[in-house]
Amino acid sequence: MEILVCVKRVPMVGGKIVLTGDGEVDTRMSGFTISPHEECAVEEAVQITERLGGTVSVLTLGPPAAADQLRESLALGAGRAVLLETDGREWGPMATAAEIVAEVRRRAGEGDGYDLVLCGNEAADTGDYQVGIRVAHALGWPSVTGIKSLEVTGTAGSGERPPGPPRGPEGPVTSSRGLGREPGDGGTGGWQVRAGREYRGTEESFEFGLPAVITVKEGINLPRYPSLPGRLRAKRAVIERHEPTWQDEGMRKQALRVPAAERKQAEVLGTGADAVPALMRVLEEWGVLP
Amino acid sequence: MTVLCLVEHDASGVADASLRALSFAHGLTAGAGVAAVLFGPADEVPRDLLASYGATEAHVVEPGHLPGYAPQAWARVLAGLATQASASAVLAAATDRGNEVMAYLGAIMDLPMAANCLATEPGEGGTHQVVRQRWAGLLLEDAHLDSSPALMTLATEAIPAAAVADPGGGSGTALTVHPYQPSLAEGDLRVRATESAGHTSGASLATARVVVGGGRGVGGPDGFAPLEELAGLLGGVVGVSRVVTSEGWRPHKQQVGQTGTRITPELYLACGISGAIQHMAGCAGAKHIVAVNTDPGAPILSHADYAVVGDLREVIPALVAALRARSASP
Q1: Which tens digits make up the pLDDT trace of B119-173?
Q2: E strands, chain A, where?
Q3: How far A247 CA lies from chain B's nearest CA (Å)?
């Protein structure tokens, strides 16, 4: 089972978001982390390969410092890391997806095609909700988003992985032939998934064959803490680097701003248990007491 | 130029989020037509309701043609209708399904998709100026969307549902319903939902009238019993911050926040919660917030109406005692 997990480096924000003079999120005091849903995607991938064998590759598109987030993922159990190094400009979801597709094709061309691509449901910062689906569509693979439970069953099939080079022009293709995998249901053998999520208070589930792209939500698992050997391995690991070219894609950010919310400051009702009578009066007034 | 709007159903009929999306679409067309797109039996289309929120037409895909939820097939329907009607925009509420279907539509049409929009204005040459949410609404982005049609999902919790003054453009005509027969592509039905009948939980955090929140200040997995007792007395449920679920103290389904549940209670009583923005993104819909915190400088105090400064292990039992005394005395 070869799994690619796509993660994003995002600012670690605490009590409030501050913008710098040029309108970007101020990270001087905060640092960066992996976007939360994607941390769970790494954990899920590691758990799957612990059960079924195989390798977890982790990929990010970002500035050179995004290597930190790849090493965090390596410390959690990923075995291989790919940095699509940018000049720090923000990339949109279409161009990002196209570069992930290029990596999937590259890997297939090397004879080690991915069976599964995992992403987060949405990035904490930009919240575009679409990179995974765009990747799947370009590859002709099935995809589903917001997954909170995932079961993989089956076998690697015949074990043959035709290494043929990517076929057809760049851009959307409707078949994954040439990627060493036959997508969808109805194939013989191979891996099957059952992916579940909540939908308005009920569980809904989806079943299809791999290869596929699945985006997950926090709560699908509880990510482990990195082990000491994991950290050491991550520190020594060699990160594969590519330098993709930024593409304009029809939606351009002009500015970020903090919404003009009314600034509140709570009125202090009192200290400790002595404040309870005042609190009871407030709750009474609001009509929330039974 | 027509604007298409995906209309979803929930247990009560047309989803409230979709009515808000229709209102938004009506505002965008400046009185021209809004075409609702629905999946379900044509004879169950609530014509008057849709018309009263600005729809002039409804394209309906019947279950015989496309049973159940299949995101790529739904997007194929929207793509077909957008081309057929030369739509200037295709909109959906930014629900889980709305974002998913619109992402597929962006992929199928090879066009950008602006998620979680709050406002838009037509710009030069068919372009759109949009305001959209980032960081779950904690930041706003002004963006230029150069795409025809413009594909957007709408952050409907921040958009009012407004019935229009002149349904049917003032002509008094009812909504016209067009059955639509989709022509699906290979693979469109590979991913289809199977819904289970069972509900995932009892009292839902998302719809609870009272939520008692617990954060790091609760101290550990054993500290939640008083919060549960308090929530029970108030007819509410317990919600927790992200640190509580990432420490494994409580299950993730109780998390309130950007990566958990968005709550909309009358009262949110946040105990031992510092007020990280990822948490506050989940309780922006609370009508009243009271914070119980040992630190009078905690960020939560700048989001709360009232605060009690103190240890929740002292305050909560006292509040429980006061509530019990109140219910004991007539």
Answers
A1: 998 888 889 999 999 998 889 999 999 999 999 999 988 787 787 766 655 555 5
A2: 2-7, 9-11, 32-34, 55-62, 80-85, 116-120, 143-147, 149-154, 191-199, 202-209, 212-216, 240-242, 251-257, 267-271
A3: 12
